[in-house]
Design a protein that fits this description.
Largest sheet of chain A: 7 strands, mixed
Structural class of chain A: alpha/beta
Radius of gyration of chain A: 21 Å
Shape of chain A: globular
Number of helices of chain A: 8
Order of helices and strands of chain A: EHEEHEEHEHEHEHEHEEHEE
Oligomer: homotetramer
Strand order of the largest sheet of chain A: 7-6-5-8-9-10-11
Number of strands of chain A: 13
């Protein structure tokens, strides 16, 4: 259907590039001349790097190729322009042994409040296979024992590449990806971290938190980059605790915070509301 | 200095009117042609009444009259257009006997974090006169005893009209204004309500809340309209409580929530981030 | 096994009655003389009705009948004394058409974080039968069409009475019980309310909330009494929203708040941490 | 008035020591035999070190010496027993250049909601002297230039020792005390930390937070020990922020969180609700 005019559709236009005067005028002018009706518009210029970010939601009939060509000609080669239809994302969910985030996503998909289709589940453990079965989902159990990290990732990549997902969601996947893997899906891997970053990085976070006597337990949903625990933060949540919490109670509070932070972050990501600017996210909500 | 070009200034442009295609393009086009540099831009169309709201922050040298004339010509008579310099608002604070909100505002003004100048304080009680004196503020004690509501308001209006404030802040002012008074300062009176509206309207809210056994105490900052407790809500805050809270403890929690809600609401209002759309507020933050 | 000494067990002792000096001393004396080891102890006297509430958690070997007899003799007939082993509660979950609370409870039971066994699900609609099936749960679909309220309840009561549950959990069960039904399970029915009580009681709460332009959406978990929406509150939760929320967005935020409030309330209830004192709850956490 | 019986008074009894069976029975027995009426009672055993903590609030006429002697005889030398009347604490507030926490405490004292008397203010800067004057408070400006840390502290200690305060409150006092100083007032120095500990310890926390792109800003009120930033945490607060926050906006959000955390912590401390157990606090609220 190349170059043919679409039916009435809801579109999301994402633009980023070096800021210069008149950008909004240029872009909205093209949208206007194509007869599109803007529903909402967000722009932001990151003062650190003077990068311009724009998200525009509009409705109309559109020859997408012609529209994109005009936009790209008007802007320039340094700009990233992406036109998306408002539709469900395709995702692969990675998990290890803890069920809580995966279960929440499965329930949300089942009742159509996730705004995404879970193509399959990949795990380095077999623990959650039965959960996947309950929801009639394919579960790839890929044990990492006796495999090098590269070999393990190669098997995973085969599945992932073939499925062509929009996003990879690490729902308590307790294994680190190599920089090569991350690069291949840069900006498209969302992780939930067991902590209110940057606190309690590393092993046994709840033991650390218990030992420190904290009064709140947090969780952080973030994009993954090559440095573990340092990707751009999307959403953070905290839950108040008190001195009576055992390490297990803290762990359960942490899980509740993780579920909250992850599905809130995914809501924004799947609605194309999140840009990455250097080490941070711009969140148009 | 009519029609003369200003020095480099920071401006805020506020526009509201009936939505139509191309509005953002039109408006940003004029901003662009005047050589102004947009720092941030917010637009929103209220789906209920298809009213378009826009707030644009920009920097530049500007012949304000010419600019406004062009804008108004391009839009039409149904539009409200307001161009403001980024500067402190002038406010009058109204209080009765409770100190907490007034004291918070005085401290914030004193240390220059209020973004407003408190021109004077008006009260129907003398209790807080000494607080005003500590901060070297004029305190108009206008008792309402032996006065009709109209007479009382007439005295107040004389002071208010002469001071020409941008906003009237009711910081626990426990007296209701007439519709005439409200109309004269429509959209410019901010009140703090002792409750998480619409719950516990009316007398003795903490007795009601205690009786009902609630687990959270709230406060609501809102614009005042002619119907008491029903003006557009700007900010709501809640504080968790437990069964050990006495009515007095609840009252104190309520005060803490009121202080939070009021200064957060005023921050948005004084930065020109709040539009009123029917019974609601649009908050560009 | 009447009157025989148990193995080492974890017990929870719940006592309520008219306060008088020395109660704690009396009660802890008996606990001490039975050689039991107190792990945690909570007492509270409601100042409104001078009722004494105590929850004591201890470990030991115990002839339960002898222990209870001594306690009841030492206190008096006006006291309610209940000795429970720390074990999972048996519950029946009621639902109508909305899945979110039921699904959350099923997942928590499945992964053993609910602290309860869901004996069966009762619904006046068939919508959630497939969800029940996924979790291998019995689902009683009892349509109310063509039945009087009394007839409908009689069918339900047969199932409930036979199952002998500790609690009935109304997980978005959109039908009102009669006073007779409530009385039979008084203090043992937990409901989740679509609102931050006492606001937005009645029909179409989100339409009301949208219309009012609120900035937070709440949910209230409470015990059910004969007056709808007025039973003692256990937990309240709120979620911040903004002007961009449609009624559907508010409804989804409400559902997220409901899930949070309900499972938090149930955690306290199932751990025997909640007393009812008049129109309020005492929550020992 | 040694050994004479008091009038009807409200007392708070604080006990800590090695846990053993029957402690509550022993202690409440003595309270009972002295004819005292318990209003509230909290006990907790820290599972890490099996230390027993108890806070009992009661009313009655009491020969304090006889009561304490009986209690100490019944317990043993390893126990710390403290009997306090319910009365305002005497405090010294330390500040440097930032006003927000000091101003909040001064307002609360002025309107009698602090539950403490501010004996005087000590600062290593002169900036806040005028604030102190407004509230008619003595302000000791003790510059640290040209003084060794020991010399500086010696001057401070003279003032402090003479005033005999119950607590020292570091309300943004940006100077570290020596271990000797801390030891002398161990468990009686409360600090407000510019961060959600343990994140962003050290210099320029808001620059660090900005750089990391966090979505929440926190503050931690804690007791001071000899290791900076590592004393037992009393209260933590967070405030949500977004990508539009500049470093200055984050700093202001941080200040608002600090004010909240500090006065909440002080409320608990001044009501004798906080015990220190190793590196943590037990908070009976």
């Amino acid at each position: 259907m190349v170059n043919s005019v679409s039916n009435m559709e809801e579109y999301i236009l994402l633009i980023e590039g070096k800021d210069r005067p008149g950008l909004i005028f240029e872009i909205t002018g093209i949208i206007f001349r194509f007869g599109l009706n803007i529903i909402s518009n967000h722009e932001y210029v990151d003062p650190e790097n003077t990068t311009f970010f724009m998200r525009s939601e509009f409705v109309g009939r559109l020859d997408e190729q012609v529209f994109l060509t005009q936009l790209r000609d008007s802007l320039n080669s340094g700009f990233q322009v992406s036109l998306r239809k408002k539709e469900k994302k395709k995702i692969i969910v990675f998990a290890s042994r803890e069920h809580h985030c995966l279960a929440d996503l499965l329930i949300r998909e089942e009742f159509d409040t996730l705004n995404a289709e879970i193509v399959c589940i990949i795990s380095n453990f077999s623990d959650l296979a039965s959960l996947a079965t309950m929801f009639n989902k394919q579960y790839h159990y890929i044990a990492h024992a006796n495999l090098t990290r590269a070999e393990h990732e190669r098997i995973i990549l085969e599945i992932v590449d073939q499925a062509r997902p929009d996003y990879l969601v690490l729902a308590k996947y307790m294994r680190i990806f190599t920089a090569e893997f991350v690069n291949q899906y840069r900006g498209r891997i969302v992780n939930i971290h067991h902590s209110f970053l940057p606190a309690f990085i590393g092993r046994e976070p709840y033991e650390q938190a218990y030992d420190r006597g904290v009064k709140m337990i947090g969780a952080t949903a973030h994009f993954v980059n090559e440095k573990l625990d340092e990707g751009p933060i999307i959403v953070q949540e905290v839950i108040r605790i008190n001195h009576k919490y055992t390490i297990d109670d803290m762990r359960q509070a942490g899980k509740d915070a993780e579920v909250l932070a992850l599905h809130k972050a995914l809501k924004y990501v799947f609605e194309d509301r999140v840009f990455i600017s250097g080490k941070k996210t711009i969140l148009f909500n």
